[in-house]
């Protein structure tokens, strides 16, 4: 009995020493983290994008701002402006160039107006699936494009979010084959490649800013449009369109852009923070977007929208109809770059 009791104080002292060591380590870690945050400069930055607050893209942008604020101890404040409130996609690119906006989310097709090789991302049916799109955007082909954009425009790419594969929606016509597109007045992104894509289907392509599309559809200015499922739902296009075709004709990469003039003046620890959080939120946004798309489609169908899923034969017919776009843009973009994207893994 005595021997057992004599062991107890020894055990307690060891346990207490262990607890004290663990507590000390936690305190040192917390102090170090606090010191790192305190060392961050005080900054107030603007982040613009064209997406509705309910969209995973908008949530990803806000998450970026929130994490940066937390990890900088509140020293770096990033104000997020959704819904094109400080400019359309094109205007946001221009604003970054002149230093009015420091960060923006902009589709590759809009940035291609400033650096044409980015048109490669919108070549119809270039990407086999999401994994292939990520291999291009996150790999050597993507980095080459981002370096070229930086050299030409002074705009840095720090991540690539996505809005997914584009679909076709219409008010009156169910689209199951290329011939169904003939004569439809169709909203497209204001980019020559997008215009060429729907001219190849004998539609009547009408360029229009994303912020204007709902009103255009509602008033009958245009009869249809193409956007990924998330955009269709977030912008309420399903309320003014009866049909949606899961054509998957293009993948919509959304570039996370930064003003390089600002970037060059940043301390290294801030650059590291921005890069790490941009990639963290990129991965979160991609996963979130792909998780909610199926639910969005169920809600659209429940709301009365007719969903058309193309068979392999129907998809092949659309690919065949859009081949002239590849012929036209192969020389403009560069055969070597296209081949590298096609073979990326």
Automatic annotation (TrEMBL):
<keyword id="KW-0813">Transport</keyword>
<dbReference type="InterPro" id="IPR038404">
    <property type="entry name" value="TRAP_DctP_sf"/>
</dbReference>
<dbReference type="GO" id="GO:0055085">
    <property type="term" value="P:transmembrane transport"/>
</dbReference>
<protein>
    <submittedName>
        <fullName>TRAP transporter substrate-binding protein</fullName>
    </submittedName>
</protein>
<dbReference type="Pfam" id="PF03480">
    <property type="entry name" value="DctP"/>
</dbReference>
<dbReference type="InterPro" id="IPR004682">
    <property type="entry name" value="TRAP_DctP"/>
</dbReference>
<comment type="similarity">
    <text>Belongs to the bacterial solute-binding protein 7 family.</text>
</comment>
<dbReference type="GO" id="GO:0030288">
    <property type="term" value="C:outer membrane-bounded periplasmic space"/>
</dbReference>
<dbReference type="InterPro" id="IPR018389">
    <property type="entry name" value="DctP_fam"/>
</dbReference>
<keyword id="KW-0732">Signal</keyword>
<feature type="signal peptide">
    <location>
        <begin position="1"/>
        <end position="38"/>
    </location>
</feature>
């Amino acid at each position: 009995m005595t021997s057992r009791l004599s062991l107890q104080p020894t055990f307690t002292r060891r346990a207490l020493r262990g607890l004290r060591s663990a507590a000390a380590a936690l305190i040192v870690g917390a102090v170090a983290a606090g010191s790192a945050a305190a060392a961050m400069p005080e900054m107030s930055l603007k982040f613009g994008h064209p997406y509705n607050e309910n969209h995973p893209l908008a949530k990803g942008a806000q998450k970026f701002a929130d994490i940066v604020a937390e990890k900088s101890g509140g020293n770096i404040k990033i104000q997020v402006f959704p819904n094109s409130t400080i400019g359309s996609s094109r205007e946001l690119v221009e604003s970054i160039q002149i230093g009015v906006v420091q960060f923006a989310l902009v589709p590759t097709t809009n940035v291609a107006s400033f650096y044409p090789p980015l048109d490669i991302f919108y070549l119809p049916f270039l990407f086999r699936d999401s994994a292939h799109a990520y291999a291009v955007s996150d790999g050597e082909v993507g980095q080459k494009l981002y370096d070229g954009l930086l050299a030409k425009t002074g705009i840095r790419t720090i991540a690539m979010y996505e809005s997914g594969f584009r679909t076709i929606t219409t008010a009156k016509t169910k689209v199951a084959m290329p011939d169904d597109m003939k004569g439809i007045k169709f909203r497209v992104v204001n980019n020559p490649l997008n215009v060429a894509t729907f001219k190849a289907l004998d539609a009547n392509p009408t360029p229009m800013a994303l912020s204007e599309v709902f009103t255009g559809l509602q008033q009958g200015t245009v009869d249809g449009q193409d956007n990924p499922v998330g955009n269709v739902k977030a912008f309420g296009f399903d309320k003014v369109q009866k049909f949606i075709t899961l054509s998957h004709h293009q993948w919509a990469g959304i570039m996370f852009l930064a003003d390089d003039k600002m970037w060059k003046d940043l301390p290294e620890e801030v650059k590291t923070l921005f890069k790490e959080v941009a990639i963290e939120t990129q991965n979160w946004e991609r996963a979130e977007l792909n998780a909610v798309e199926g639910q969005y489609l169920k809600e659209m169908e429940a709301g009365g929208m007719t969903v058309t899923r193309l068979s392999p034969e129907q998809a092949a017919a659309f690919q065949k109809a859009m081949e002239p776009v590849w012929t036209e843009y192969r020389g403009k973009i560069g055969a070597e770059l296209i081949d590298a994207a096609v073979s990326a893994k």
